[in-house]
Amino acid sequence: MPFGLKNTRATYQRLMDKVFHQQIGQNMEVYIDDMVVKTTSAEGHAADLAEVFSQIRRHNMCLNPKKCVFDVQGGKFLGFMITSRGIEANPENILWTYRCTPQSTMQETPYRLTYGDDAMIPVKVRETSHRRQVFNNEQNTQEIAADLDLIDELRDKAQIHEEACKLRASRRYNTRVRPRSFRVGDLVWRLLGEARRDVSEGKLAPN
């Protein structure tokens, strides 16, 4: 199909919907040339893949092996991070936000603790604002030098805030802990490995 036509994307999408109309919404999602085969269990994944490949062979379609990935629990699809827990934030897109947001434990931004100054987004640089209008290069250089002299003090304060936050968290936890003393022969609960939660599931599961 020539991709120079204006309606190529819509035509190709209708073609994919027609080819995989039995799988879409059940065990497969298709958006133009991006396809995802989804399965709730590892045992049924092979059967779902065989069904999709059967449809591909029936319509004489070809796949690019370099773009195919199998047996994964998550990945990027249409710019979003898809995992077994649903749609999650893409770390590549939120890393800058994290670095420029004051942390509750330190009361400072990681950016300022590293570079000794606040970050400015490009919009604030381009658009006319009071901060830009009163900007003086010589005075700014002096203030940057003064901030760098105080960066060690700023980092010490951030460390104090972090230690205080840890202390408050430990005190809050210890108030709910009841001391127990055991003697030989007492019956206790034993933690079995089979009863633990699968490490491949949950919030901290690898993608």
UniProtKB/TrEMBL annotation:
Gene Ontology terms for molecular function: nucleic acid binding
Domain Reverse transcriptase residue range list: 1-82
CDD domains xrefs: RT_LTR (cd01647)
Superkingdom of origin organism: Eukaryota
Record-linked Pfam families: RVT_1
Classification via InterPro entries: DNA/RNA_pol_sf, Rev_trsase/Diguanyl_cyclase, RNA-dir_DNA_polymerase, RNaseH_sf, RT_dom
PANTHER family noted in UniProt: REVERSE TRANSCRIPTASE DOMAIN-CONTAINING PROTEIN, TRANSPOSON TY3-I GAG-POL POLYPROTEIN
Protein name, UniProt field: Retrovirus-related Pol polyprotein from transposon 17.6
